[in-house]
Amino acid sequence: MRPDRRARRGGRRSGGPEHLGHSLALPLGVIAIVGGLALGAVALPHLFAAIAVFQAQPIVARYIAGERGLYASDVASAAERLELALDLAPNADTAVMLADLRLWQARRATDSKLAAEHTQLSVAAAKTAVRHAPAHPEAWTALADALDLLTQGDASVIAPLSRALLVAPYDPRRRGVRVELAMRHWEALSPQAQRAAGPAFIAMARADIGALARLTKRYLALGATRAALSGDRDLARRFDATYIALPN
Of 9, 32, 113, 217, which one's alpha carbon is 20 to 30 angstroms from that of 150? Predict the structure, then answer.
């Protein structure tokens, strides 16, 4: 009888790990399912946001290219797509694109109330961009540009404009906007921000000195441009000659 009892005890011991494996299978399966659902919950918003941005990008590309034949309805539809993308997955690049399209709408609105509404939406989108990417090379310029239109150039423009000049002094994107805003607000800029504006002025002068001269004349910004070009004497002399030759 003793061998039988030992056999029975041995059987119970050998069945223990197998029974434990069956017991763990259900919790592990549940964990796998929950983990998969969690990953899906994280990934799906980003996927849908990417689709929305993809749908809006043709209009954004035409805007960036400077096309004049954009339809207001197309821009409105693209802006709605970008807003959806931002709601699903906030992203600085998406926010900058939305700020651009809202500013396009504001500048073409025939009703002052609607223009102000679109400008406020542009400011909000640009603020979203700088919040998510404080060193973004375009976001601060987009914010300064929108604020300049919204506030008609009051002091609230200076902080984002200064950041735009300091963050992206050599970035070619939106260079013309930074130069124009710097001309208009030169006296309010700190010496550090004025120095940071120099590379943009110099690059614009080297690319198209006539365009810089015309912009300088439009904004009566001769002092600003000469100060910005002071580090390159030859370029400064060429600018002076071009500026003097402009028709009155």
Answer: 217
Residue of 117, 93, 86 whose CA lies nearest to 103? 117
Q: Is the confidence at residue 99, as pLDDT, over 60?
A: yes
Coil vs helix vs strand at 137:
coil
Average pLDDT over residues 58-77: 78
Alpha helix (H) residue ranges in 65-152: 72-88, 92-108, 112-132, 139-151
Closest CA to 96 of 53, 131, 134, 125: 125
**Per residue in 207-231, pLDDT tens?**
999 999 999 999 999 999 999 999 8
Residue 8, C-beta contacts closer than 8 angstroms, at least 6 positions apart: none
Do 228 and 199 touch, CB atoms closer than 8 A?
no
Residue 136: φ, ψ to 5°: -60, 130
Q: Cα–Cα distance between 118 and 215 in angstroms, integer?
A: 26
Model confidence at 189: pLDDT above 60: yes
The Cα 110–Cα 108 span in angstroms is 6
d(CA 240, CA 112): 39
Integer Cα distance of 3 and 83 in angstroms = 78
Place of tokens 């028709």: 247
pTM recorded for the entire structure: 0.78
For residues 173 and 65, give the distance between their C-alpha atoms in angstroms, rounded to a whole number. Answer: 12
